[in-house]
Amino acid sequence: MPQPTQNDVHVDAILTNMSIAFMQEADNFVASRAFPSVPVQKQSDKFFTYTQADFFRDNVQPRADGTESAGSGYGLSTGSYSALVYALHKDIGDQVRANSDAPLSPDMDATRYLTQQMLIKQEVDWASSYFTTSVWDTDSTPGTLWSASGSTPITDIQAGINTVLSATGYTPNTLVMSYAVFSILKNHSDFVDRFKYTTSDSITADLIAKVCGVDRVLVMRGIKNSANEGASATYAQIGDKDALLVYSAPAPGLMAPSGGYNFLWTGLAQSGGLGTSTAMSRFRMDQLRADRIEIESAWAFNVIASSLGYFFSNAVA
After folding, report:
1. Measuring CA to CA, which residue among 179, 74, 187, 69 is closest to residue 131?
2. What confidence tier does 7 reach under pLDDT thresholds 50, 70, 90?
3. Has residue 237 been placed in a domain?
4. Domain span at residue 202?
5. Range of weakest confidence among 56-65, 270-279, 306-315
6. Residue 297 and residue 118 in contact, taking contact as beta carbons nearer than 8 Å
7. What is the CB neighbour count within 10 angstroms for residue 251?
8. CATH code at 153?
9. Burial of residue 55, with CB atoms counted within 10 A of its CB: 0-12 exposed, 13-18 middle, 19 or more buried
């Protein structure tokens, strides 16, 4: 006896209340948060730098009655920045737009894709500028890697804090680490033993900051695929296995030193959520019979005072 089959009574269709896309959260990226951002009106310019040694010298002398006071002064030089413009677009053809089923939203999907691409670019640029050796005054690999038994990450971090303080008079307030480092430290006895009798919660970045004596710990969770389009994907954490201890000014200002600044050229658009001057545009490409969605950003990461940073290279295995 003929009976309707499952395929007869139901035709598969696209679900309109869910889809799958591997989008990394904005909090996975630290580039826009690690150092203060300075909006600038010109794409390149200069800034003044005072000579640190002059401010730390003891020049005050006793003054005899009726005589002049001792004289002194300070040196002044200039540094410079140049904000590069980065851009990427995605075209949406008229045929694709006309044939797109719900829940696809070509414009919104393209905007999210381009935003993700810019976040990855910015993080890679920040890591290559800051999160590497030969940038800061001190590069150090722990004598016993923090992933090994008997290691002392808190002691090592305190030694880094003392090194920066002794050289600059500023106490590092920020610790940036890759997730590979964080995953080791949050289970390390140095930290676990501090809280095992007071909380049953797992060790967080805030708790690590509290123990180390810094204002904040930023964990790099961004992932990059380094393979070319069409090739098998090669994923890796952007932060590798390193950590950076640094003094980061709470806000930019006159005579406000900082390990680094992020110069944002405002000539493109208003400041956007990427921590950059960002423009998102949509315009018609008649010759392609398509709409173009384009993102454009301009920034310049600059090391301002290398003495304010202490870099831990390959801190874990």
Report:
1. 179
2. low
3. yes
4. 26-55+73-312
5. 270-279
6. yes
7. 10
8. 3.90.1690.10
9. exposed
